[in-house]
Amino acid sequence: MNIEDLPPHLQTLLQYPSFPVHIGEATIEGLGEVSGPKKDFSREINAHFGHPLADTPLTTFRAFVFATITGRCIVALRGDRKRFSRNFGSNLVVRGEYERRAFTFTAPRFYCRRAPGWGSGEEWVLFEPINEPAEIKYEPFSAVAEVRVLQLNFCIQLDDLDRDKSLSVTAAGKTITFLPAPMAGELVRLMDVEAIESAPTSEVRFKTWRGCIESDLSCFAWQVCRFCGLVAQQQTNASQLTLIGQDGLATKTEFYAPMRSDFRDRYLLIGLDFAENGLNQLFSECFDEYTKIESDSGWRRLFNTAWSYDDGVYLENRVGTLLGSVELLIRTSLVERNLFTRAETESKFLPELVGLAKKMLKWDIPNHYIKPAKLYILRNAIAHANPLPYTPQEILHMQQKWGLFLNRRLLIRLGYTGQIRSASWGYSSFSKVDDFSEEENSFAAK
Question: pTM of the prediction?
Fold first, then answer.
């Protein structure tokens, strides 16, 4: 069976893959497995509808392994639809040969996407790895010399989508090179018109170092990718990580199903490749501190919400998550300074937390942020699902102002000393990171 034999919808998914098609034989250990007292009930339901039992081994199927243009790993196979169900499963294995080397693909956990309905007969079924990385290993292989990562939503070409260029930074004593991913310019254009929501637009490369092991390499790669969220104000996670051997061939690729953001192109840094106020300065000043505090649960949750609050569908969702992030920022900072315990901060809400930030943390929060008391009125309306008390435009301006406040405070905490893009009665200027003046932080028209 060849790619040409696939139905049109699969051939569409295979256009411009971010990982080339590998064809092999697939086996599945379990599908729809349930443990504990629900197991017998689950078996009865599966038997009634003709679904496979979790402990019934499935036969071998011809399978296609690939990753779509958006970076999602997919395994497609054809078989009797009664053997599959829309459910979770374990240990999907595909073995085959690619470019004269044997490969083994393994997905410890996956979700089966069978077409809905109760019909019978054969059909194409899609499996998507979840919860744990899937991986593909090759034999023979050589010692690992380099790591290459496809990174979601971070684009070093925003100033010129048609220009291929690389950008190198230094982090933790290591040189990291960012390059445009294949079709990065076209992907940004597709995301800009919302034809797709997110995709890998950068390839991150770095060399291995003496004494490192695979877990060190993947951990460092994830830290580098996530750190870029400070610039892009969105989730910039890895979608694939490939270990390159000394012979220049891949020895292993890991596939992730990470948190995703809708692509946004309003980056905080003035120019990623600037010698001053660029990406290299941010990495040199902040990366080490970021890796120290990200293990703390409070800071980790804060980074996640700070990079995803703007993904909300409704304005209420976005503003509610943003203000919750501001509260979490102040709580975490008070705990970090040993001024309160985490439990003590949980009973304090935005008005009191802002007061504590000004008094005990000595933060600069000018009156234009909090007077008149629109912020607190808005926060209470959203928290209690009441009608919004102001016009959408007023609320959007408040969201933009406090979003910039949150990002300024995160960068200051990490040690950044440069300039960032800011508001000067719009979004048209840049200022020092610690400038909280009304002129540089108001998005409302003058």
Answer: 0.89
